[in-house]
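Pinned message: reference record for Lrp/AsnC family transcriptional regulator
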Amino acid sequence: MLDAVDAALMRALQGDGRATFQALADGVGLSRTAVRARVRQLVQSGAIRIVGVLHTGVLGMEALGHVSFTVNGPVGPLMNKLGEREAVTFAALTAGRCQAVAQVRVADDRALAAELADLRSLPGVEQVEVFRAGAVFRDSHSSVRRLQDIELDALDWRLVRRLLVNGRASYADLARQVGLSQAAARSRVVRLLESGVVHVTALVEPTALGANEQLGLGVHCRGDAEALGTRLAAVDGVSFLASGFGRYDLVATLTAPDRCRLVELLETVRATAGVGPVETWDHLSVRKERRGGEHLVDWPDAAGSPE
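Predicted structure (tokens):
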């Protein structure tokens, strides 16, 4: 049974999956030894996975579209097709104005237009509506830090792939696995993290927290959408948030352990200065949720850069 300390540790690890045990201990008021044991238990029980998530810009996936589907008939066949599409990183069957939503990541707007043309031809689709994301403020499955201009070599990619599997791998283990000294491995990993190429975070297993409730939001703003996005990104429970162009000024996802907490989060969003009308849709069933760079995990080291 998870307690308040476990929840605090999970939040801290979501912010920095490579935080030292001492830093985590200072944050929750326990000893370093006690925190180490708790984190080990969280990982071994499957409550969390501490992994690296890759900045999509590294792979040239600069265009993000949030797509809403109006569907005639059963939605299951559409969900199966969305699950098979490489460009679709998230897909959920929903209740609300539309019957399904998806997130599409591609190289540019031309590729996005081509993907939308294909999505319109999928089973049962009567209409698609796209929100073209501009700034992404929060994404639990991709790094949203500013990506610096950086050149990656084969050793960098080998380190990235290992961080995607185990975000808290020690520098000694990483050095041994890629054939570097510990100091060289540390220097490269710090560079990868500080440049925004990869972000190490804790992915929380929903069943560890009880029921996992998700709600999608389309937010109309009063004033500056970018400033409002910055404020809403600080709300605990916002798992995705982006500003952009389309039907809404902001699109967001709220994640909570139960309906009561979900309602509280929604009310918090509605009470935030600058928030206008809010449209919602329930995520009844999530068909696909892929973190940034996940498809690189199984690449052989000889593959080098994905380019």
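Pinned by admin. Summary line: DSSP finds ten helices and ten strands in the chain.
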